[in-house]
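Minutes, project check-in

Agenda point 3 was the complex the collaborators sent over. CS summarized: two entities, 364 residues total, and the question is how they sit relative to each other. Sequences were read into the notes so everyone works from the same version.
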Amino acid sequence: MIRTKRSIAVSKTRQHLEPGPIVLISSAWKGKTNIMTLGWHGMIAYEQVITYIWDANHSFEMTRQSGECVINVPTVDMLDTVVAIGNCHGKRIDKFTKFDLTAAEAAEVNVPLIAECYASFECQLSDDSLIEERGLFIWDVVKAHVAPTPKNPRTIHYRGGGHFMIAGKAVDMRRKFKRGNL
Amino acid sequence: MIRTKRSIAVSKTRQHLEPGPIVLISSAWKGKTNIMTLGWHGMIAYEQVITYIWDANHSFEMTRQSGECVINVPTVDMLDTVVAIGNCHGKRIDKFTKFDLTAAEAAEVNVPLIAECYASFECQLSDDSLIEERGLFIWDVVKAHVAPTPKNPRTIHYRGGGHFMIAGKAVDMRRKFKRGNL
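CS then shared the predicted structure for the full assembly.
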Protein backbone atom coordinates (compact mmCIF):
# COMPACT_ATOMS: atom_id res chain seq x y z
CA MET A 1 0.00 0.00 0.00
CA ILE A 2 1.35 3.40 -0.98
CA ARG A 3 1.60 5.79 1.97
CA THR A 4 1.02 9.45 1.21
CA LYS A 5 3.68 11.34 3.10
CA ARG A 6 4.18 14.96 4.05
CA SER A 7 7.41 16.86 4.45
CA ILE A 8 8.40 17.42 8.10
CA ALA A 9 11.36 19.25 9.67
CA VAL A 10 14.52 17.13 9.38
CA SER A 11 15.15 17.85 13.07
CA LYS A 12 12.21 15.53 13.83
CA THR A 13 13.95 12.53 12.25
CA ARG A 14 14.66 11.11 15.71
CA GLN A 15 10.94 10.54 16.30
CA HIS A 16 11.10 7.78 13.71
CA LEU A 17 14.66 6.40 13.91
CA GLU A 18 15.54 6.64 17.62
CA PRO A 19 13.04 3.85 18.50
CA GLY A 20 15.35 1.57 16.51
CA PRO A 21 13.26 0.10 13.68
CA ILE A 22 14.57 -2.02 10.87
CA VAL A 23 14.94 0.28 7.88
CA LEU A 24 15.15 -0.21 4.13
CA ILE A 25 18.04 1.70 2.58
CA SER A 26 17.41 2.63 -1.04
CA SER A 27 20.33 3.62 -3.25
CA ALA A 28 21.02 4.48 -6.88
CA TRP A 29 24.19 4.52 -8.96
CA LYS A 30 24.88 4.43 -12.69
CA GLY A 31 21.24 3.93 -13.62
CA LYS A 32 20.59 1.07 -11.21
CA THR A 33 18.77 1.06 -7.90
CA ASN A 34 19.02 -1.20 -4.88
CA ILE A 35 17.39 -1.78 -1.50
CA MET A 36 18.88 -3.34 1.63
CA THR A 37 17.49 -4.09 5.09
CA LEU A 38 19.43 -2.53 7.94
CA GLY A 39 19.19 -2.63 11.72
CA TRP A 40 22.59 -1.21 12.57
CA HIS A 41 21.95 2.51 12.68
CA GLY A 42 21.90 5.24 15.29
CA MET A 43 21.12 8.93 15.74
CA ILE A 44 24.28 10.98 16.34
CA ALA A 45 22.79 14.49 16.03
CA TYR A 46 19.28 15.82 15.42
CA GLU A 47 19.94 15.81 11.68
CA GLN A 48 22.59 13.09 11.43
CA VAL A 49 22.46 9.31 11.35
CA ILE A 50 25.27 6.76 11.39
CA THR A 51 24.93 3.39 9.63
CA TYR A 52 27.13 0.34 9.55
CA ILE A 53 27.06 -1.28 6.11
CA TRP A 54 29.02 -4.46 5.50
CA ASP A 55 31.34 -4.16 2.51
CA ALA A 56 29.96 -7.43 1.07
CA ASN A 57 26.57 -5.73 0.63
CA HIS A 58 25.88 -4.51 -2.88
CA SER A 59 24.64 -1.26 -1.30
CA PHE A 60 28.07 -0.56 0.19
CA GLU A 61 29.66 0.55 -3.10
CA MET A 62 26.44 2.11 -4.42
CA THR A 63 26.06 4.42 -1.44
CA ARG A 64 29.77 5.13 -1.19
CA GLN A 65 30.08 6.05 -4.85
CA SER A 66 26.92 8.15 -5.04
CA GLY A 67 27.23 9.67 -1.55
CA GLU A 68 23.46 9.44 -1.18
CA CYS A 69 20.76 7.16 0.16
CA VAL A 70 17.20 7.18 1.42
CA ILE A 71 16.40 5.63 4.81
CA ASN A 72 12.84 4.24 4.56
CA VAL A 73 10.90 2.92 7.56
CA PRO A 74 8.57 -0.04 6.90
CA THR A 75 5.72 -1.27 9.11
CA VAL A 76 4.54 -4.76 10.00
CA ASP A 77 2.40 -5.14 6.87
CA MET A 78 5.75 -5.24 4.99
CA LEU A 79 7.41 -7.86 7.22
CA ASP A 80 7.58 -10.59 4.56
CA THR A 81 9.12 -8.12 2.11
CA VAL A 82 11.65 -6.91 4.67
CA VAL A 83 12.82 -10.46 5.31
CA ALA A 84 12.91 -11.34 1.60
CA ILE A 85 14.95 -8.22 0.74
CA GLY A 86 17.49 -9.22 3.36
CA ASN A 87 17.73 -12.68 1.82
CA CYS A 88 18.72 -11.78 -1.72
CA HIS A 89 21.59 -9.91 -3.35
CA GLY A 90 21.08 -6.69 -5.28
CA LYS A 91 23.77 -7.39 -7.83
CA ARG A 92 21.58 -9.89 -9.64
CA ILE A 93 18.09 -8.39 -9.36
CA ASP A 94 16.14 -5.15 -9.30
CA LYS A 95 14.53 -5.21 -5.86
CA PHE A 96 11.89 -2.56 -6.66
CA THR A 97 10.59 -4.80 -9.46
CA LYS A 98 11.02 -8.13 -7.70
CA PHE A 99 9.18 -7.00 -4.56
CA ASP A 100 6.60 -4.85 -6.32
CA LEU A 101 7.72 -1.70 -4.51
CA THR A 102 7.03 1.77 -5.89
CA ALA A 103 9.92 4.15 -6.52
CA ALA A 104 8.90 7.72 -5.70
CA GLU A 105 10.96 10.73 -6.66
CA ALA A 106 13.04 12.38 -3.95
CA ALA A 107 13.43 16.14 -3.58
CA GLU A 108 17.12 16.52 -2.77
CA VAL A 109 18.85 13.31 -3.83
CA ASN A 110 18.91 11.14 -6.95
CA VAL A 111 17.69 8.08 -5.09
CA PRO A 112 14.05 6.90 -5.07
CA LEU A 113 11.96 6.79 -1.91
CA ILE A 114 10.02 3.57 -1.26
CA ALA A 115 6.41 4.75 -1.50
CA GLU A 116 5.06 1.85 0.60
CA CYS A 117 7.10 2.88 3.69
CA TYR A 118 5.42 5.25 6.13
CA ALA A 119 8.56 7.42 6.50
CA SER A 120 11.51 8.22 4.24
CA PHE A 121 14.59 10.28 5.01
CA GLU A 122 16.72 11.62 2.17
CA CYS A 123 20.40 11.54 3.15
CA GLN A 124 23.67 12.90 1.85
CA LEU A 125 27.02 11.51 2.96
CA SER A 126 28.50 13.94 5.49
CA ASP A 127 31.73 12.14 6.34
CA ASP A 128 33.33 9.23 4.48
CA SER A 129 36.41 8.92 6.67
CA LEU A 130 35.12 5.91 8.63
CA ILE A 131 33.89 3.85 5.67
CA GLU A 132 37.10 2.14 4.62
CA GLU A 133 38.21 1.00 8.05
CA ARG A 134 34.90 0.52 9.87
CA GLY A 135 32.04 0.44 7.35
CA LEU A 136 30.53 3.48 9.09
CA PHE A 137 28.68 6.07 7.00
CA ILE A 138 27.75 9.41 8.61
CA TRP A 139 24.67 10.86 6.89
CA ASP A 140 23.10 14.33 6.92
CA VAL A 141 19.33 14.07 6.72
CA VAL A 142 18.41 16.69 4.10
CA LYS A 143 14.67 16.02 3.64
CA ALA A 144 12.15 14.10 5.75
CA HIS A 145 8.82 12.64 4.57
CA VAL A 146 6.36 11.04 7.01
CA ALA A 147 2.77 9.79 6.61
CA PRO A 148 0.53 11.66 9.07
CA THR A 149 -1.22 8.44 10.11
CA PRO A 150 -1.03 6.19 11.94
CA LYS A 151 0.28 8.19 14.89
CA ASN A 152 1.64 4.98 16.39
CA PRO A 153 3.24 3.11 13.48
CA ARG A 154 3.75 -0.60 14.01
CA THR A 155 7.43 -0.63 13.10
CA ILE A 156 9.57 -3.77 12.85
CA HIS A 157 12.52 -4.32 15.21
CA TYR A 158 15.07 -7.10 14.70
CA ARG A 159 16.39 -9.30 17.50
CA GLY A 160 18.66 -11.47 15.34
CA GLY A 161 18.23 -15.15 14.55
CA GLY A 162 15.02 -14.59 12.57
CA HIS A 163 13.16 -13.10 15.56
CA PHE A 164 11.39 -9.75 15.36
CA MET A 165 9.60 -7.47 17.81
CA ILE A 166 6.71 -5.35 16.56
CA ALA A 167 6.19 -1.88 18.02
CA GLY A 168 3.56 -1.96 20.75
CA LYS A 169 1.58 0.63 22.65
CA ALA A 170 2.38 4.33 22.86
CA VAL A 171 2.85 6.01 26.23
CA ASP A 172 2.75 9.78 26.70
CA MET A 173 5.06 10.81 29.55
CA ARG A 174 5.22 14.54 28.77
CA ARG A 175 3.88 15.50 32.21
CA LYS A 176 6.92 13.86 33.84
CA PHE A 177 9.49 15.84 31.83
CA LYS A 178 11.05 19.13 32.74
CA ARG A 179 9.91 21.57 30.10
CA GLY A 180 13.43 22.24 28.78
CA ASN A 181 14.12 18.55 28.34
CA LEU A 182 11.22 17.86 25.99
CA MET B 1 12.74 -5.67 41.13
CA ILE B 2 16.15 -7.26 40.90
CA ARG B 3 16.57 -9.41 37.78
CA THR B 4 18.81 -12.42 38.12
CA LYS B 5 20.94 -12.49 35.02
CA ARG B 6 23.15 -15.08 33.37
CA SER B 7 26.27 -14.58 31.33
CA ILE B 8 25.72 -14.97 27.57
CA ALA B 9 28.13 -14.75 24.64
CA VAL B 10 28.98 -11.12 23.88
CA SER B 11 28.29 -11.85 20.20
CA LYS B 12 24.59 -12.06 21.15
CA THR B 13 24.50 -8.43 22.30
CA ARG B 14 22.60 -7.47 19.14
CA GLN B 15 19.58 -9.47 20.28
CA HIS B 16 19.04 -6.85 22.96
CA LEU B 17 20.41 -3.60 21.50
CA GLU B 18 19.57 -3.82 17.79
CA PRO B 19 15.81 -3.41 18.51
CA GLY B 20 16.72 0.10 19.68
CA PRO B 21 15.63 0.35 23.33
CA ILE B 22 16.34 3.26 25.60
CA VAL B 23 19.30 2.21 27.74
CA LEU B 24 20.71 3.32 31.07
CA ILE B 25 24.46 3.93 30.91
CA SER B 26 26.16 3.42 34.25
CA SER B 27 29.61 4.87 34.83
CA ALA B 28 32.14 5.25 37.64
CA TRP B 29 35.12 7.52 38.13
CA LYS B 30 37.08 8.64 41.18
CA GLY B 31 34.80 6.88 43.64
CA LYS B 32 31.56 8.26 42.22
CA THR B 33 28.97 6.59 40.04
CA ASN B 34 26.43 7.97 37.62
CA ILE B 35 23.56 6.84 35.38
CA MET B 36 22.23 8.45 32.22
CA THR B 37 19.40 7.59 29.85
CA LEU B 38 20.43 7.16 26.23
CA GLY B 39 18.61 6.47 22.99
CA TRP B 40 21.36 7.41 20.54
CA HIS B 41 23.24 4.16 20.12
CA GLY B 42 23.82 1.61 17.38
CA MET B 43 25.43 -1.74 16.71
CA ILE B 44 28.53 -1.43 14.51
CA ALA B 45 29.90 -4.98 14.86
CA TYR B 46 28.70 -8.11 16.68
CA GLU B 47 30.70 -7.08 19.73
CA GLN B 48 30.83 -3.30 19.26
CA VAL B 49 28.40 -0.50 20.00
CA ILE B 50 28.62 3.21 19.18
CA THR B 51 27.03 5.83 21.44
CA TYR B 52 26.56 9.55 21.08
CA ILE B 53 26.97 11.30 24.43
CA TRP B 54 26.50 15.05 24.65
CA ASP B 55 29.47 16.76 26.29
CA ALA B 56 27.12 18.61 28.67
CA ASN B 57 26.16 15.27 30.24
CA HIS B 58 27.97 14.47 33.46
CA SER B 59 28.53 10.97 32.06
CA PHE B 60 30.59 12.34 29.16
CA GLU B 61 33.71 13.04 31.24
CA MET B 62 33.16 10.04 33.53
CA THR B 63 33.09 7.56 30.65
CA ARG B 64 35.84 9.30 28.74
CA GLN B 65 38.18 9.40 31.72
CA SER B 66 37.52 5.85 32.90
CA GLY B 67 37.20 4.33 29.43
CA GLU B 68 34.44 2.08 30.73
CA CYS B 69 30.68 1.89 31.03
CA VAL B 70 27.84 -0.57 31.42
CA ILE B 71 24.91 -0.44 29.00
CA ASN B 72 21.83 -1.58 30.95
CA VAL B 73 18.46 -2.29 29.31
CA PRO B 74 15.36 -1.39 31.37
CA THR B 75 11.79 -2.61 30.81
CA VAL B 76 8.45 -0.83 31.07
CA ASP B 77 8.14 -1.38 34.84
CA MET B 78 11.07 1.10 35.10
CA LEU B 79 9.56 3.78 32.84
CA ASP B 80 9.07 6.39 35.58
CA THR B 81 12.66 5.88 36.71
CA VAL B 82 13.99 6.13 33.16
CA VAL B 83 12.25 9.47 32.66
CA ALA B 84 13.33 10.79 36.06
CA ILE B 85 16.98 9.85 35.46
CA GLY B 86 16.89 11.78 32.21
CA ASN B 87 15.53 14.80 34.03
CA CYS B 88 18.25 15.33 36.63
CA HIS B 89 21.97 15.96 36.55
CA GLY B 90 24.49 13.51 37.97
CA LYS B 91 26.89 16.15 39.19
CA ARG B 92 24.66 16.95 42.14
CA ILE B 93 23.21 13.59 43.14
CA ASP B 94 23.94 9.88 43.39
CA LYS B 95 21.39 8.37 41.04
CA PHE B 96 21.68 4.82 42.44
CA THR B 97 20.61 6.16 45.85
CA LYS B 98 18.05 8.68 44.63
CA PHE B 99 16.23 6.16 42.44
CA ASP B 100 16.66 3.19 44.75
CA LEU B 101 18.59 1.20 42.16
CA THR B 102 20.89 -1.66 43.13
CA ALA B 103 24.55 -1.54 42.08
CA ALA B 104 25.78 -5.04 41.21
CA GLU B 105 29.42 -5.88 40.72
CA ALA B 106 30.67 -6.25 37.14
CA ALA B 107 33.13 -8.93 36.05
CA GLU B 108 35.44 -7.04 33.69
CA VAL B 109 34.99 -3.34 34.42
CA ASN B 110 34.99 -1.13 37.52
CA VAL B 111 31.47 0.12 36.87
CA PRO B 112 28.37 -1.27 38.59
CA LEU B 113 25.60 -3.02 36.70
CA ILE B 114 22.03 -1.90 37.45
CA ALA B 115 20.52 -5.02 38.99
CA GLU B 116 16.92 -4.01 38.16
CA CYS B 117 17.60 -4.00 34.40
CA TYR B 118 16.96 -7.26 32.53
CA ALA B 119 20.21 -7.00 30.53
CA SER B 120 23.60 -5.39 31.17
CA PHE B 121 26.59 -5.15 28.82
CA GLU B 122 30.01 -4.37 30.24
CA CYS B 123 31.94 -2.15 27.84
CA GLN B 124 35.49 -0.92 27.38
CA LEU B 125 36.31 2.05 25.19
CA SER B 126 37.72 0.73 21.92
CA ASP B 127 38.36 3.99 20.08
CA ASP B 128 38.35 7.50 21.53
CA SER B 129 39.25 9.32 18.31
CA LEU B 130 35.68 10.48 17.60
CA ILE B 131 34.84 11.75 21.09
CA GLU B 132 36.29 15.24 20.93
CA GLU B 133 34.86 16.26 17.59
CA ARG B 134 31.62 14.25 17.45
CA GLY B 135 30.77 12.92 20.93
CA LEU B 136 30.96 9.38 19.53
CA PHE B 137 32.27 6.58 21.77
CA ILE B 138 33.09 3.20 20.19
CA TRP B 139 32.71 0.44 22.79
CA ASP B 140 33.85 -3.19 22.87
CA VAL B 141 31.31 -5.33 24.71
CA VAL B 142 33.47 -7.47 27.00
CA LYS B 143 30.81 -9.23 29.09
CA ALA B 144 27.08 -9.70 28.61
CA HIS B 145 24.48 -10.49 31.30
CA VAL B 146 20.84 -11.22 30.44
CA ALA B 147 17.90 -12.46 32.52
CA PRO B 148 16.57 -15.71 30.98
CA THR B 149 12.96 -14.52 31.31
CA PRO B 150 10.89 -12.98 29.95
CA LYS B 151 11.76 -14.15 26.44
CA ASN B 152 9.98 -11.11 25.05
CA PRO B 153 11.09 -8.20 27.27
CA ARG B 154 8.86 -5.13 27.16
CA THR B 155 11.63 -2.66 26.42
CA ILE B 156 11.14 1.11 26.25
CA HIS B 157 11.72 3.01 22.98
CA TYR B 158 11.86 6.81 22.79
CA ARG B 159 10.15 8.87 20.10
CA GLY B 160 11.18 12.28 21.42
CA GLY B 161 8.91 14.94 22.90
CA GLY B 162 8.01 12.83 25.93
CA HIS B 163 6.48 10.04 23.82
CA PHE B 164 7.50 6.41 24.20
CA MET B 165 6.74 3.14 22.42
CA ILE B 166 6.71 -0.08 24.41
CA ALA B 167 7.94 -3.28 22.77
CA GLY B 168 5.01 -5.32 21.48
CA LYS B 169 4.57 -8.83 20.20
CA ALA B 170 7.33 -11.18 19.07
CA VAL B 171 7.24 -12.72 15.59
CA ASP B 172 9.36 -15.71 14.62
CA MET B 173 10.30 -15.52 10.93
CA ARG B 174 13.08 -18.13 10.94
CA ARG B 175 11.35 -20.26 8.30
CA LYS B 176 11.61 -17.35 5.82
CA PHE B 177 15.37 -16.93 6.20
CA LYS B 178 18.07 -18.60 4.18
CA ARG B 179 19.99 -20.75 6.63
CA GLY B 180 23.26 -18.83 6.19
CA ASN B 181 21.59 -15.51 6.90
CA LEU B 182 20.26 -16.42 10.34
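Noted in discussion: The mean pLDDT of chain A is 96.
Follow-up: revisit at the next meeting once the mutant set is ready.
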